[in-house]
Structures are given as structure tokens and as C-alpha cells.
Amino acid sequence: MSNRTRLRNLTILLGSTTTVLAATIISPALPDMARAFQDTANADFLVRLTLTMPALLVALAAPFAGILLDRWGRKPVLAAALLLYAVAGTAGFFLDSLMAILLSRALLGLAVAGIMSGFITLILDYFEGDDLNRFMGYQGAFIGLGGMVFLLAAGFLADVGWRLPFLVHLFALVVLPGVLFALDEPHRERPQPTREQASERPRLPLGRLLPIYLAAFFAMAIFFVFVVQIPFHLSAQGGVSNTQVGLALSLQTLASIFIALQFQRMKARLSFQSIFVFIFLMFGLNHFIVAMTGSYWLVVAGLLIGGLGVGLMAPNTGVWIGSVTPAALRGLAVGGLTSALFLGQFFSPILTQPLIGRFGLSGTFAVAGVAALLLTVVFVIAARNRPRSRSQPESS
User: Fold this and answer.
1) What is d(CA 72, CA 327) in angstroms, rounded to the nearest whole number?
2) What's the pLDDT tens digit per position in 245-290?
3) Number of H helices, E strands in the chain
4) pLDDT tens for residues 24-33?
5) Contact, 373 vs 280, CB < 8 A?
6) d(Cα 286, Cα 375) in Å, to the nearest integer?
7) How far apart are CA 198 and CA 10, in angstroms?
8) Which element (helix H / strand E) includes 51?
9) Residue 13 in 3-state DSSP?
10) Which residues 6+ apart lie within 8 Å of 185 measured at CB?
11) What is the mean pLDDT of the chain?
């Protein structure tokens, strides 16, 4: 492997961590942020929404980002998205209005749509077969490692001042040179079809993609219950600092790193549906443990169990998409996956807010645990009734 190829791969792996940055980096600062804007109407809800606002714009913009990736190429879209990410992500450090911060977070979502779709599509372009499974495992591990390092930093910075975690988004500028100088634009032939060939153009296999999108949506919605609510749950116990909140969330990623590195071996033995059985089972156990305890270290133990599910989400959905999608439509298909994942993020606090009002935080975690176990049963049935999916991409 040449040095350029190593740098290319490292750029993809480092760039992939920016997506978890956008999703979780300000999580430890949410309680202090809510206190800073306590005079704003509905401040508690709006502050929670700042964490997930990027997700709504990602969900809306990702299909269009996928079209641009297929039409304009991977590098131009990624470079523009990384620049916007750095500007919009750091804006919260300077802005004094909660609504203005929400707007900047929306722009951040546009950037994440291009970044996440772009890097996943590049992985599907560059790798196939066992190499694809292995590299997707590496990507999942890097996402977990990035989450651990950045959340630890965010927790420490949030204890100094709730605005400081916004500055961590400048990491995008570290990735940008690698995108410009180390990535090769994949060669994609686009011959002009004859009239006879026009009817044979590859079509997006929506019937096969829809179950993947639904699985991604529900997995992310359940996962984000504890990303959004754990800071408030721990803070309510008293004596828990922002640094400890960041530590709790980052320790979860230790388990996700370990399990992501096992993805290639697991995929050799299990179908995509069976891996989702494992994911939802771990989420259910995680939520029930958190629901039953206020002990800091028991909450951490629950998060470690949940991390075993988190680490498999990205590689399993990414490879599954690649296995059913023609190469010419990968960008669009991955854009749809990105939309599903981030719709789950966005709707998570909206769906749980009424539950918090009625059952409290512990009751909300219990309801999420029940939902996860019900989905476990659904995928047990799917794994038994459907043939094992191939890990090789289908020919267009």
C-alpha cells in the first residue's frame, strides 16, 4: 500500500469522525446552556433541539447531496461541506441568541449531509467484499474513537464555559487538506445511452432499501434518547460535573470501538438482519439499566452495553446499502441512508418530550427500552424468514 493510499484512507477515517462531532459534541454543555437561556420561552426544549437541529437539515438535504455526489463528483462536494462545517459549527461560540444558534446548527446540518454521504460513498467506491467489511469496521471504530476523544474534551471545555465545545468543529479544517490532495475522484463512466439502452438504466431498488432506512431510523432514534437525555439525567442526581457527563458518554465508545473492529468477522457469520437483532437488544438492555438506577457508575455500565450496538450501526447499514445498490446510484442511496439516520436523531427529543412530562426521565428510558426489545423481536422474525444478504455490491 502506497503512502498516498494510506493518507487517503486516513483522511476518510478522520473525516468520518466529524459526523459524530456534529451530533454529540455540545451534549455535555446542554444543562449550562439551558440555564444561560432560562429567560427564553421553552428554553429547555429549544436547547435540546440545538443538539438535534443539524439532523433535520441533514435528513432534508442528504438526498440532494447524494445527487450532487453522483453528478459533480465526491471531492468538490466534500471540500465545500467541510468549509461550511467549520464556519457553521463554531458559530455558537459567538452568537448570543438561542434562535441564532439554532439557525447556525441548521446550516451545520447541510454540511454534515455532504460529509457523511460523501465519505460513505467513497468507501463503497474504493472497496468491495472482505476489504469493504474490514474498512467499514475501521470507520465504525474511528467514529467511536473520535466520539470518545472529542466528548472527553467537550466535557472538560463545558466546565470552563458552555460555549467552548463549539470550537471543536474547527477539526474539519484538519481534514480538508487530505480531501483536496489525497483523495482520488473515482472514475465513473457515463456513456450516452442509446434508445434501446435507455430502458435498461439502473434503477434505485426502493423495495430493498426501505427496510434498511427504517432500521436505521429506529436505531438512531432510540440511541439518541440517551445522547440527549443522559446529561440531564446525571445532572439531576447532583454532584455530577460536565466533565463526568462527557466521560460517561465517551466511555460508551470504548465498547463501540471494540465491536466495530469485529464487524468483518460477524458479517462472515451473520446476516444484516441478525446484526440488527444484536443492536436493538443491546439498546434495550442499556435503557433498562439507566431507567432503574441513578448511580453514576451503573449508568456508565449501561452505556457500555449500549455502545456494543452503536459500534455496529454504521458498518452494518453502510455495507447493506452497498450490497443492494447499483454503483451508478450509490450517492443517492447513501443520501437516503443519511436522511434516515438523521431523521431518527431529530425526532428523538420530539418523541420523548411528552414522555418526559408524563413519566419523567427514568420512565422515558424504560419506554425506549421496551421499544428496542420490540424491534429486536421484529428483526428476529426478519432474520429467520429472509435469506442471508450478500456483502458484495450488486452489479448494475
Assistant:
1) 15
2) 777 877 787 888 889 889 989 999 999 999 999 999 999 999 999 9
3) 14, 0
4) 788 788 888 8
5) yes
6) 14
7) 39
8) helix 43-72
9) helix
10) 73, 74, 75
11) 85
